[in-house]
Design brief:
This is EF-hand domain-containing protein. The protein is mainly alpha-helical. It is about 60% helix and about 5% strand. α1 (about 15-35) crosses α6. The radius of gyration is 15 Å and the shape is globular.
Length: about 110
C-alpha cells in the first residue's frame, strides 16, 4: 500500500493470485476475505464490521467517508451492507489487473 497525498493506493495482487491459485482457489480466498470482514451475527459486511477490520488490517487511517463509499460501491441490493456475492463482485471490479489484464486466461479458467 502506498499513500500519495490524501489518496490510498493499493498494489493489485489479484492477477498473480488468480494465476497461482487458479480460479477456484482464488474464489476461495475471496470468500475467506469476506468472512474476515463480516459481522458474524449478520453474515454481512457492515459499516461497523468494516471499521473494526481496518484496525486489524492496519488501515485505520481510512476515514468513515471512504468506508461508506466502499459499502455503497458494492451494495447492489440497497441494504447498506455487503453479502458475499456483492463483496466478490466488488473485489473483481476494483482489480484493474483482472479487468484489463489476461482476461482470456481467467475467463477460460472460470469456465473449466
Amino acid at each position: 500500500m502506498e499513500v500519495e497525498g490524501e489518496v490510498l493506493q493499493f498494489e493489485d495482487y489479484f492477477p498473480s493470485m488468480m494465476e497461482g491459485l487458479g480460479s477456484e482457489g482464488f474464489m476461495e480466498e475471496l470468500c475467506q476475505g469476506f468472512h474476515l470482514l463480516m459481522d458474524v451475527e449478520k453474515g454481512l459486511i457492515t459499516f461497523e464490521s468494516l471499521r473494526r477490520s481496518t484496525w486489524q488490517l492496519g488501515l485505520q487511517e481510512m476515514g468513515d467517508d471512504e468506508l461508506v463509499w466502499m459499502l455503497s460501491e458494492g451494495d447492489l441490493d440497497g441494504d447498506g451492507a455487503l453479502n458475499q456475492t456483492e463483496f466478490c463482485i466488488l473485489m473483481l471490479r476494483l482489480s484493474p489487473g483482472l479487468m484489463e489484464g489476461p482476461k482470456q486466461y481467467w475467463m477460460e479458467e472460470m469456465h473449466t
